[in-house]
Structures are given as C-alpha cells and as structure tokens.
Write a structure and sequence with these properties.
By secondary structure, the chain is mainly beta. It contains one helix and 25 strands. 2% of the residues lie in helices and 47% in strands. The strands form five sheets. Strands 1, 3, 4, 6, 9, 10 and 12 form a seven-stranded antiparallel β-sheet that branches.
C-alpha cells in the first residue's frame, strides 16, 4: 500500500489573537475596533469573538510565512485597500471566502495590511487562515513552567489559576515590569506562543533568530488562550531562540510555547486523552455560504449565527484570568 503524501500545515489566526495588529483612525489604542462575540456555543469555555470597525482609515496587519491566505469575516460592501509586502493587491472572491483571498504568492515571509477606505455596514474580521507550505509534523507544548524557559530574575511571578475548568494549566508566568524578558530555545520548523490579552496588557517585542516583531496584548476585554506570536518555515536542523520583552509597565503573561517539526510524523490525539490540551493538527477553516443581505444589516448589533468549522490548531485550555 503506497504511503500517504505528507500534508502541509494550514494555520488560523483568530481576530482576537495578538498576532494581528489593529489601528484606528479615531483612536490610537484601537478602541475603534470593537470586540464582538458570536452566538456560537463556547469552545472549551471560551466564547468565539471577532473584531468590528466602521470608521474610514481603520486598519489591521499581520505577518505570515506561506504562499496564500484567506480573510474570513463580513465586508458588507466596505471598500478597502489590501497591500502585501508594500504592493497593492486585488483579493479574489468566492462563496467560501467572504472578504477575500490571495493565492500564488512566493513561499516566504509576508507582511499584510488592510485599510478601510469607505464603509457601508460594519466591517467584521473573524479570522485569517494561511497555507504555510510547511510539511505538517508532530507538535509538542512546553508550558511556561517548563525548565526549558528562562526568565529575567525578580521581574516575573508564577501566577496561579485555581479556578480552571480543566486542570491543564495550573499557573502562568507573568510580569508587569517594563524590560521583563523571557527566552525559549527550541529545535523545529514551527513555533506558537500563547498567553492572554486584556485591558491591562501592553506592547511587547518578540525576537526570533534576530528578527523582531512589536505586538500588543491590549484588548478591551480579557481574552484567554490568545496566540501571541507564530512563525513557520524555520530550519528544523538548527537551534532557534525566541526572546520576549515587555515594553511597558503593563501585564504580559506567557502560558506556553508549542513547537512543531516536520522531521517527526504527527500523532493523532483523542479528545478523551489526558493530554487533550496539547497541539492538534491544524486544518483549513471552512466558511459556509452566507446570506449577506440579512447578515450585513445585523452586524452592528451582533455577529451572525452562521456556523463556521474552525481549524483546530495547537491549543492550551484555560479560563479567563480576570485579575491580570
């Protein structure tokens, strides 16, 4: 029996993940981008949420390694300009890509920015899904309490979480000090960094192999289990170092790093296993066909209830951290 060809990794950024940066034309703290919750049932105790904007000039940006990406959400006739690596692009449209998609990009690192030019109804971003072109491999989670992590002395504390629905993450590493730093060494081609975001969080810098990204953990609501940073397309044969630095006297908490390697075949995991909180293979989100005429009119009050099949990606289960 011939061996199955290895599948490639597809990854989803949720709109409330810190890997997506938002700017508002009316508010430098991006409050112009509201957090709206869907009516879909909570997943692992966490409600699904999106970002919504209705002001001209509002924008969002993200980086990824891959050759194509999909923007999931509701544009509702909003005009926008999309740039990839500084060049204006015209995104493709289809029944399954409500906002649009781009394919056929060079397999490398890309920077994407979308800016709203005019508005009809509210513009809602739910998620970004992209093809990395990297062969999917085994993934392993390293909690921030793992000895493979290093933290600057005296600036971090172990923050207990006694009210977990599942006892998967007893504590996270947390700092409120500017300059508080952490580092994590690993070997693999893919890295995910998890933590939370909230109104007391601020900006932080993530450096991987000498390349730095400035990101923000600020959000108007506390959002647990957020993807703070992601990178793929790394050399699986060499050691990599991830450095995180808090840039403000604000909260920064780290829950776990998840490392993937195409050199190790992926292992199927059962939802009933004791390690069900560890990574699962990522897959492409499926966006159902929507009735835009009714959906667009409803977005200013609440998100539409159309069902989405969300891509499963590495996940660490924990509840709201209300006092960060």
């Amino acid at each position: 029996m011939p061996a199955e060809s290895p599948s490639t990794l597809r990854v989803t950024y949720k709109a409330t993940d810190a890997v997506i940066s938002y700017r508002s034309s009316t508010d430098p703290d991006m409050i112009g981008w509201q957090t709206v919750y869907t009516d879909r049932p909570p997943s692992n105790g966490i409600r699904d949420a999106a970002r919504m904007a209705s002001t001209i000039g509002s924008s969002f940006s993200f980086e990824f390694y891959g050759h194509s990406f999909y923007l999931g959400g509701v544009s509702c006739g909003t005009e926008f300009v999309l740039t990839v690596d500084g060049q204006t692009m015209l995104p493709g449209k289809s029944d399954n890509d409500v906002i649009g998609h781009l394919k056929g990009l060079n397999l490398t690192h890309h920077s994407v920015n979308l800016t709203i030019l005019s508005t009809g109804f509210d513009f809602v971003l739910e998620r970004v899904t992209f093809d990395t072109g990297v062969t999917r491999g085994a993934e392993h989670a390293y909690l921030s309490t793992d000895p493979s992590w290093s933290f600057s002395p005296c600036l971090w504390e172990l923050y207990p979480q006694p009210e977990l629905a599942v006892v998967d993450l007893p504590a996270v590493q947390l700092t409120r000090a500017m300059g508080g730093s952490a580092s994590f060494d690993f070997t693999g081609d893919t890295i995910y960094l998890y933590g939370s975001t909230g109104p007391r969080h601020g900006s932080f810098a993530v450096t991987l192999d000498g390349r730095t990204q400035i990101l923000s953990g600020w959000s108007i609501n506390v959002m647990p289990h957020r993807l703070l940073f992601f990178q793929s397309g790394l050399d699986s044969l060499i050691n990599h170092r991830l450095n995180i630095v808090n840039l403000e006297n604000a909260t920064l908490d780290l829950a776990a790093a998840v490392v993937g390697s195409c050199l190790i075949p992926p292992v199927a995991q059962s939802d009933t296993s004791s390690d069900r909180h560890l990574p699962t293979s990522a897959s492409l989100i499926s966006l159902g066909t929507r009735d835009k005429s009714t959906e667009c009119a409803a977005t200013s009050d609440q998100m539409a209830t159309t069902s989405l099949n969300t891509a499963s990606q590495p996940r660490i289960l924990f509840l709201n951290i209300n006092n960060l």
